[in-house]
Amino acid sequence: MKYTALGDLRVSRLGLGCMGMSHLYTGHSIDNASAVRTLHRALDLGVTHLDTAELYGPLSNETLLGSALHGRRDDVVLATKFGLRSHTGKKAPVDSSELSIRIAVEGSLRRLQTDRIDLYYQHRVDPDVPIEDVMGTLSALVDEGKIRHVGLSEAGKGTIRRAHAVHPVAAVQSEYSLWSRDADDGTLDVLSELGIGFVPYSPLNRGLLTGKIRSLDPLDADDWRRTNPRFLPGALERNLETLREVTVVADEVSATEAQVALAWLLARDPSWSPIPGTTRIDHLEEDLGALDIVLSDAQMQRLTDIAPAVGGHHTEAQMQLFDR
């Protein structure tokens, strides 16, 4: 395993996004025993960066990790998120009021069976609560020892600067992949300037960049991806055509499409820690194989120049919650 740092948190270059073990991908959710085996295999292979959220399940993903990490808590950097569930009765989809945050953190600590959260993200920026107030609450939780570091998810450049001025931001998490490059709007430059780590989520575009999804047929009727713009009829077929360039490079380096997509991310910046998600040990081991893939400058450029995906990476309603 290779490692990097998010602030002063030492993490594996590839982490593990745990959402799919409990949330959204109905057809790929698995029983807890199988999930625990996958999590334990990840730890055995040196993965130290695990990502969850109270929203996932909801709540059950944190409970799963709490059970899986029994006796191994000190082996990992544990990241979770608050803010997309209200604990105060607020009707809006986001709630980062002090009361909601404090209720959320106590619930996460209990479900995760831990006395501290290593990296605590605001899941989405709350337009009704100034980020300075949110960071003040989180700074107090750091002082109380309940969380160690603060993160932001899908936050814009101005918000990141304002937040970091109140309390250090260790990491920003955004969707980023060959097909999702919103953070190229200058956000990555701000992170570099301020010394903030970057955690790309959905680096394999919810499985589409693996080459293993050729149609919607394997997905359950209520699998969330059926509503994702890039999986809709018409868009899916065009995106699979674009994927051919990834396949060509994969053949050149004797790797899989997933490994090439991850290797491209890893080569972009040695400080990044992408968090591909999987429920299966074989896919986990395949993903970690990306750490050994070396892409030439020409191959990196061909991948960087790949045609944009057809369709947004979230629905229009979901994108309204992004801070840009």
From TrEMBL:
Domain NADP-dependent oxidoreductase: 14-306
Gene3D superfamilies: NADP-dependent oxidoreductase domain
UniProtKB keywords: Oxidoreductase
Entry-linked SUPFAM superfamilies: NAD(P)-linked oxidoreductase
Gene Ontology CC: one annotated term: cytoplasm
Keyword Oxidoreductase among record annotations: yes
Molecular function as annotated in GO: oxidoreductase activity
Name of the protein this chain belongs to: Aldo/keto reductase
Native organism: Microbacterium aurum
